[in-house]
Amino acid sequence: xxxxxxxxxxxxxxxxxxxxxxxxxxxxLSTEYWIPKNINFLWAMGMVLAATFGVLLxxxxxxxxxxxxxxxxxFDSVNHTIMGEVGYGWLWRHMxxxxxxxxxxxxYIHMFTGxxxxxYKRGRELIWLSGMLLFxxxxxxAFSGYMLPWGQMSYWAGMxxxxxxxxxxxxxxxxxxxxxxxxxxxxxxxGRFFMLHVLLMPLIIMALIVLHFxxxxxxxxxxxxxxxxxxxxxAEKWKAGKRKESKVIPFNPVxxxxxxxxxGIYFIFYFYLVFYHFEFAMDPVNFxxxxxxxxxxxxxxxxxxxxxxxxxxxxxxxxxLIAFGFAQVIFFLLPFLDRSPNVAPANRRGLxxxxxxxxxxxxxxxxxxxxxxxxxxxxxxxxxxAWTFIILWIALPFITKAEKTVRGHK
Amino acid sequence: xxxxxxxxxxxxxxxxxxxxxxALYAAKRTWDPLPSVKAGGFTTLDLSNMQENKLYVEKxxxxxxxxxxxxxxxxxxxxxxxxxxxxxxxxxxxTVGGHKYMIVVGLCTHLGCIPDYFPEKNKFICPCHGxxxxxxxxxxxxxxxxxLVIPPFKITGTKVVLGEVGSEYKKLKEAGVVA
Lengths: 410, 179
Prior knowledge:
The complex is a heterodimer of chains A (410) and B (179). Chain A has 410 residues and is mostly helical. Helices cover 63% and strands 1% of the residues of chain A.
């Protein structure tokens, strides 16, 4: 039997230590979890994301108290009850809508930071993979949430996206009807997407966040130069009081205080949007109640899905689906398609640097083209951008295989 | 000792596996369309007073049904792929009371948006991804991979019942016009 100090007062430090090992937990998870010094504000995006998820969860709890998942009542429960009657209901809705949009902006910054600095290989593969699972889960969470106000864009986005599951010429209409629980999106559809949005997906996301943190603990976070050093030795220096010499800082309180500063700036930006520019997250089309007999003149997803939507659009049905499927899974393969052992910022990696910036620009072009109506020159630009995306990924293994070793690395 | 443990492990696995299969089946059935949804599936249309080359929209199983009494000259104004055949001669049209009608499910076969009809051009253009159809529902321009779908129907006089399979529908099916 473990040693218990029988004289310890209930809930005193000693008492908790004997029962919960609070000191060990605190040491392993925070005060002796070491972060490199050589980082910048981009390293705070993880904590920004965690905080934004917290905001989504809390605002969601308040919305859930008045939202009614019924095709006849849902629209009014949001646009009349929550927006007009519930005290500060508008605040929760705008916080929820803006956070749902901004969280993708931060996710993309977080992802491209990882790609730029090569933080997905040499021991960090699982960080990347669990992060990609989080991206997919957030996408599912965003899509299912978009169904709930049951406006025109909810209905037609639901129609178009569930139709993807007929898998082109395979014509799996039975599968599509099974997913919907009806011939078209209806009560069964709204009910199940409500369940996914408020319970199943949040549970999965929370489990994945824990996994994502777990995958970071052993390889530690990367740094601005991709430098590999002995965390144990550097930690000893810090603990011996040689704080200037040491290349690391403890997660808590030193790194967290930097995170908190970035969070402060971020929340000024976020609440500016919530109070003054919430309309960017509120599509005017979705303020018309769902109508199965009237397609909106132009159907487009929220901005964060535009690039993958645009990859679907210029091709015929089957080719489009294959291209779309490619776009959905290809980011998962990044650690294995990058054949270079270099962990270094992209600007020191020759051709990879061009690859990185081309990919970023191409995804911005795809996003813009996904928003404009499909005609004339836009179709041409969209087609070129879609092919560029595919070719870039096919070229990646060859570019990185030929890459020279970056100085200072084996 | 380890044999006994392996055996019990396998027994437990099989037992739990059976339970999981049963639960999966129940979950699948819970997601199936309800019988009440499946049962309410018939719509009767009266075509007697329709005007030529005008789009009529009805509802069947929650989906829009597009009906056009096709005029003798229904050539599409512009044809992106050279297909400018007169829609009036298309074998997909349904003859009711001596007139020819296009009766189709109004969801683009690409991803299910409702195509808009332009009577002066005698063609449909889909607002989502730019697909085009003629006044008989044939594809003029991709991405839609196949013509607009003809729902099962039965003709009685000048009326058409959607959801029921009549002899004319069977003939179209034998001719390979409907899947």
